Model the fold of this input.
Amino acid sequence: MNARRLIPSAALAGAVALAATALTGCSGAAASGTGKDGRLAVTASFYPMQFLAEQIGGDHVAVVSLTKPGVEPHDLEITPKQTGRLGQSDVVVYLKGLQPAVDEAVAQSGVKAVVDAAALTELEAHGPSGHDHAHGDAHAHAHEGEEGHAEGHAHGHGESGADPHLWLDPAKYAEVAKGVGAALEKADPDHAADYRKNTDELVGKLTALDAEFKNGLQNTASRTFITTHAAFGYLAERYGLDQEGISGVDPESEPSPARMKELQELAKKENVSTVFFETLASDKTAKSLATDTGLKTDVLDPLEGITDQSQGADYFEVMRSNLKNLQKALGSK
Done:
């Protein structure tokens, strides 16, 4: 089954335009960028959306994130205070399908200038495991949009079962950045030139990061990695790798004994050296599997939040740490 909803470039451009057009209905205050201190008041749902708003908005925006550092975003509960503040936002930037509480709060907020990152790029269904996409010409496959690897494993995220972790693919994240930039331009036309310039700079950095990952993961001894949080489906598909999630998309769920046995056998067969865990969730299952199979453990950060334990201070630093850890685990040649 084709897991991917292929969206023609014209339709994608239309989605970006639609997101920007939605902002024309915002109030006069929002249109002229009159937040608390004259800056545009932007509410972001969690770190990857916050990072885009801050990088593109610069000094012209005041960004508040609904998800505090160190909080697992999937399980976020919105406080009445946050709900009230959300309703006073000039612009809301979120990712529909990742955080049910945020989706509900945004729908009820009455804010007209809402940017949904999921509408700005093509979403796909990824499961806890998949094997097809690393075979053949993996890199051409990943970039040219051939058939994906659903194998019937839908996430349960959103109505379509689409995987929301798009920011872990720098190329997809760049598409979202363009949409956020267009939205800020529409909401605050006085500073449109700055938003455009900042967007171009950010997209350039993301394009360079994409090239680093492509080159860094081109020749490895193994193409399979095991992780507690199956958040890396887009990254795996982009660079021709196989992601095997211990627990599927929910980092807190307990894997079945059958799944653990399956992963032990897979680790031997696919020459897997490392089991990855993340900083925001328990490493218990990763260490258990590693002990049972004689594997090492290391960190692969899904970048849902930055804390003191993160292997880097921002998106780019953590992504480069992820690349180094993947190269080490896969046996970069």
Remarks:
- Strands lie at 40-44, 61-65, 91-94, 114-116, 224-227, 242-245, 274-277, 296-299.
- The two ends are 34 Å apart (CA to CA).
